[in-house]
Amino acid sequence: MDQSMFFDSQLLVPLVLVVAVLIIIGKAIVILPQNMAYIIERLGKYHETQTAGLQFIIPFIDRIAYRVSLKENAIDIPSQSAITKDNISLTIDGVLYIKVMEPYKASYGIDNYVYAVIQLAQTSMRSEIGKLDLDKTFEERDSLNAKIIDAINQASAAWGVQVMRYEIKDINPPSSVLDAMEKQMRAEREKRAAILDSEGKRQAAINLAEGEKQATVLAAEAEREQQVLKAEGEARSIELVAEAKAKALTMIGQAAATAEGQAAVQLDLATEAIAAKKAIARESTVVLMDNDKSSAGHTVAEALGVVAAIQQSGTLTK
User: Fold this and answer.
1) β-strands 73-83, 89-100 pairing
2) Quick check: 48 and 71 in contact, CB under 8 A?
């Protein structure tokens, strides 16, 4: 029995050694996941920063002091009160996106960089809100976000942390201010509606005046063209009448130059003279005329004398 116990003790020692070696090897091999960094301390002092992949440490001498995530982290900023430049109290909350750029500084530069960044974001937000009026806080969100990021990054550089983005989620003014803003917006809408209505009426009046102006101009031009055409027509009519009279006189003159024409002229004159005597007799109740001169023969003789004088003057002219 003593011999069996001796053999058991001989097997136990190597087994313990094997187990110890496996434990040591297991502690010496470290596999780091992607976007992670391990801060290794050797005998209590910073030794190195290990990144993703297969890494080795010395068991019982080296230890993993900090495990730092290199991923971008979204941090909710709790609601807080801030006073604007025009003394309006606001309740604001936001969300902050940060990333560890230097694991060594994030581990040894500050005890809790997440808490520190949250506090810094709140104080920076209050500071920037205090520089703006209430209306500007709604209009300049992008500028406000950028200023808060710059303020945080200036302080967090010593912690190895960088702020990637900052977004204001809600800006809640007091209910009395909301009512006043609603009234102001309603007044602005009514003002814009009145301006648009007046602009529409003004444009309509302008269009109507332009239409009447164009109609008047077109009517005047039409009337002028009508008068020109009428004048041209009258001138043409006068010209045609004159030409007709000239042709008639020429034909009468040519006919009167012959013996037959003379006889026709004398007959025509005698007929007109007799007709004139009759017209005078009809229109007047009393006619006092010399008996000889009032006869038809005397009248015809006078007309023939006129024609003879005209013919004589024409002959002398030639």
Assistant:
1) antiparallel
2) no
